Automatic annotation (TrEMBL):
Keyword Transmembrane helix listed: yes
Coiled coil segments of this chain: none
UniProt similarity note: Belongs to the glycosyltransferase 2 family.
Spans through the membrane: 270-289
UniProt keyword terms in alphabetical order: Glycosyltransferase, Membrane, Transferase, Transmembrane, Transmembrane helix
Domain Glycosyltransferase 2-like: 13-140
Gene Ontology MF: a single term: glycosyltransferase activity
Protein name: Putative glycosyltransferase
Length: 308
């Protein structure tokens, strides 16, 4: 890999956005505290209608702003940003969401680890924005017996139990630094099969299986406003049918049928596949039922009533 600056290689921070300009502004403000001196910000605005483009152009003219028509979804938006990063000869791509804030030293910690580990993906410790000491993900593992993707430390209070740098198998790519060599050798996100959800896990697990290192670096900390799309999309009065259709058909659903099945068929060992598929359908039915008005109004279901 050819670097223009061996001490401070160029990092391209790629951020896909769609509306939520307040989150984007808060994220960009947090980047101003970053101590690493050599980075460029690439924002891919996929058809925002809330003034995001105007806000960025006015308040953050240094940002490289790319535009979509609202149909890029996450994978194609990220790919567009990565292609721009390659065009400006970045050495690393840092993928992160616009609903995050970052620690001032997070980028330096990522780059320092990457320089010690060429051709690698370095991932951050991700914590909840609303609960700053609660871990969302400290790297991730794959456990097909339990049901595939397992975020390490999820929901735990951060007491320093995950302060050791270590190898992991995959990541959601929130605050992840990727050596551009990996994109050149392996390709970008698989937007055809995974336009929104599972593209990040698919990419990192493909990289892991091809022999690239994925390293968790706890000194890099990111606070994430964890996506509540499903909770906002599904009112408590949703019927079983409408909930089931949303969970299986909507691109914004992490249980989207097409993406989930394609992910399992690509990665799950054949001897675990029946168990994994059975669990998927069981969870799908349970979540659909939990949004059923009859379930939510427990007075209508005698066996769910609390005994006096």
């Amino acid at each position: 890999m050819s670097k223009t600056n061996y001490q401070y290689p160029l990092v391209a921070v790629v951020v896909p956005v769609h509306n939520n300009k307040e989150d984007t502004a808060e994220f960009l403000e947090s980047l101003k505290s970053v101590t690493y001196p050599n980075y460029k910000i690439i924002i891919v605005d996929d058809g925002s209608t809330d003034g995001t483009e105007e806000m960025i152009k006015t308040a953050y003219p240094e940002v490289i702003l790319l535009k979509g028509d609202g149909n890029l979804w996450w994978s194609r938006a990220v790919n567009l940003g990565i292609e721009k990063a390659l065009e400006i000869c970045a050495d690393y791509v840092l993928l992160i969401d616009n609903d995050c804030v970052v620690d001032s030293g997070f980028m330096s910690a990522l780059v320092e680890t990457a320089l010690r580990n060429p051709r690698s993906i370095i991932v951050s410790k991700v914590l909840y924005y609303d609960h700053p000491n609660k871990i969302w993900e400290a790297g991730a593992d794959i456990n097909w017996f339990k049901g595939e993707y397992v975020p390490i430390g999820h929901g735990e209070i951060d007491k320093g139990q995950y302060q050791t740098e270590r190898y992991v198998k995959c990541s959601t790519l929130v605050g992840a630094l990727i050596d551009v060599t990996i994109f050149k050798e392996m390709g970008l996100m698989d937007y055809k099969n995974f336009p929104q959800f599972k593209a990040d896990i698919d990419f990192t697990y493909r990289a892991y299986k091809r022999g690239y290192s994925i390293i968790y670096q706890p000194k890099s900390q990111v606070w994430h406003k964890v996506d509540s799309t499903i909770r906002k999309k599904l009112p408590k009065t949703s019927s079983f049918r409408s909930t089931f259709i949303y969970l299986t058909k909507d691109m914004r659903s992490p249980m989207n049928f097409n993406a989930t099945i394609k992910y399992y068929l690509r990665h799950c060992p054949f001897y675990f596949l029946p168990l994994v598929l059975l669990k998927y359908f069981a969870v799908l039915l349970l979540k659909s039922w939990q949004h059923n008005p009859l379930y939510l109004d427990r007075k209508k279901i005698p066996f769910l009533q609390r005994k006096s």
